[in-house]
Write a structure and sequence with these properties.
The chain has 266 residues and is α/β, with parallel strands linked by helices. The protein is built from ten helices and eight strands. It has an eight-stranded parallel β-barrel, surrounded by five helices. β2 (50-52), α2 (71-83) and β3 form a beta-alpha-beta unit. The protein binds phosphoenolpyruvate (PEP) and manganese (II) ion. Manganese (II) ion is lined by residues 27, 231, 241-242.
Amino acid sequence: MKIDLNIQPLESWIQTGKEPLLIAGPCSAETEDQLVATAHLLAKTGKVTALRAGIWKPRTRPGEFEGIGSIGLKWLNRAKEETGLPTTVEVATAKHVEEALAAGVDILWVGARSTANPFTVQEIADALKGVDIPVMVKNPVNPDLTLWIGALERINNAGITKLAAIHRGFSSYEKSAFRNEPMWDLAINLKTHAPGLPIICDPSHISGNRDLIPYISQKALDMDMQGLMIESHIDPSVAWTDAKQQVTPAALAELIANLTLRKPET
Ligand code: PEP
Ligand code: MN
């Protein structure tokens, strides 16, 4: 399979001096206080490069919390002003892209459910034409490497050269300790097909459970992935979404400090 992505190095759009590159923040922005307080604690660790928060949440069933919506963009801006952390949100429609761009969000990401739908990805890509903003593309929920590559190509064809992939694991019917099977081979294959493409691992959505996050994070670093996206909440026990997999900023700092940066030579 030939893929020809025109991409700029990661260093051109995100600070990579801190090792490992860490994007952290709550699964969902819930209240202004929760988001801003979490951001302050994350910034204080000195280990976080960008703040993530979902404001439009793709939920499996209706009636669950579907995200705080556009008001969250204001909260993200306040968190950025007060902490200096650049911000990133998930966009799933052209309207989300327009609103996020108008609000000054620094980095966008495409979620796993959107990547699985070429119409949605194309709609997002069309809304990005002529815009210079970094975009991270999560793998599709299903283990289909070509679908992941296709989404990256669509965004790249729209002129987005600050591009990265996020590996968040894949749905599987197999009984597993993981919420989403890592299927590391797929990420390795992506690297082989697109050698210059940065890949960031999302251990939170692979694990589904905070106890497994250190193991998955270490594995990602051992595989030379370029960074980690980890969900962190000021009080995970009361989180409105993904409570079991979120960690406090203090636990996150400890987890990162315990990672070995380079695989020991054998
Ligand atoms: C998220 O990052 O909170 C999220 C919804 O992730 P995914 O698209 O990987 O399921
Ligand atoms: Mn989540």
